[in-house]
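Might I ask for a little of your time on a matter of protein folding? Here, with my thanks, is the record as I have it:
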Amino acid sequence: MSLPVNIEQILNGQTVEWERVECKQGWNPEDIVHTIGAFANDINNWGGGYIFIGVAEKDGIPQLPPVGLQARSLDGIQKELLNLSHKIQPYYAPIYQPYMLDGKHILAIWVPGGDNRPYKVPTTLGAKGQHRYYVRRGSSSVMANQQEERLLLEMAKRIPFDDRVNHHSKIEDLHFGLIRSFLEEIKSDLAKEAAHMPLSELAQQMRIAGGLPEALLPLNVGLLFFSDKPDKYFPGAKTDLVIHQDNSGTVFTEKILTGPVQQQLRNVLSFIQTNVIKEKVIKVSARVEVERVYNFPLAAVEEVVANAFYHRSYEQDSPIEINCFPDRIEVLSFPGPLPPVTKAILKKEKRIVARKYRNRRVGDFLKELRLTEGRATGFPTIYNSMQQNGSPEPVFDTDEEYTYFLAVLPIHAAFMASAEELTEKDIQILSYCVKPKKRTAILKKIKLSNHAKNYQRYIVPLIEKGWLAYTLPDTPTSPKQEYVTTEKGKQALKQ
């Protein structure tokens, strides 16, 4: 049975944290059942983990190429795995796949966080073994202490929202094409098998469907990634992207982006990269090389936006709000961070490592698609990319009740002056209005219709900057109203 992940990317540390990966050079069923129990209990809501048999490790990091397993041993190990599942209370069956890596046989075991946690596993497989809870502490599987046991029992009452069955949908609401595209993009071996599998079986293997076999339903994460209109089920699963012409907040254009989470995220980033991010070449005296800077470094924008998609609540109806002002980008999502991250920590810490995740399954899919970091490097990436670009430090904020999370990326200082620079249409309008002109004529000159939104976008900003003035200032809505370039506007033209 093929896994719906890219095994080589996981082993190379490209998609998940090392704490979620355990490698064993050989087969040791007692160690394995402890690790299965710890990953299935998923005390940190990481989304479980992966075990690789036939791969040595050093300091918690896989050593490649693998040592491998004897081909003849694979069937026996898989039979023992099946027996181990019956020793777990309640019953739990991980998903596993024999895999050929660098010419060597290994066994990959996927252990998602279990729906019926907490799980107990035998301390030893001998006759004196007792069933106990196991958890992950760092990169080790250990017996839970009393505090961890209490936490596991509390967590049993709560299944993360993205991992819950959606009772207002049906299995046919999952789009087969979107699922196959995902598997092909991450280069999962399951992509080939999927072509010959019924949707219900594929959805179960992907763990994006659950419930009774006779009444299989999509999980929320399945609808977020693999339905055409997630906002049909989650009204807030969309993004409000606003491009402001000035800092007043009154002149703007707005786009509402919808669709599967991964497409929505990519469309947001593509729009910002095309329409917002700009490059400037600066000649530094006494140096041959030129310096290239950006108003907003793309790496920082990608991390801030992806973070909003990953950590927001899809139970709330509020969309992600992205406001692009001339001097900053603001990304607002709801609610705020999970404890222990606080307002004070956000203000002073540059490396924030979350140990609790609101959407563990959403995060796993985004990591597989390489749309967000898998190694807790999001905040350092933002700070580093802003610093390398010569930009001011980012600002992160929430309130005392954790009702929102706000990330602000200030513009590079070299672009502050350019906020006052003339666009091509500004030049056309100001040149044309050296002698007074009516609104209809002005918009016709720049090849636009006499529509209110065109007036608000192209004429009003020039008035607010003092470059264009009313000829009848006391009656701005008069049908005789005309517009004329001011002395300030003429100076801007000369510059």
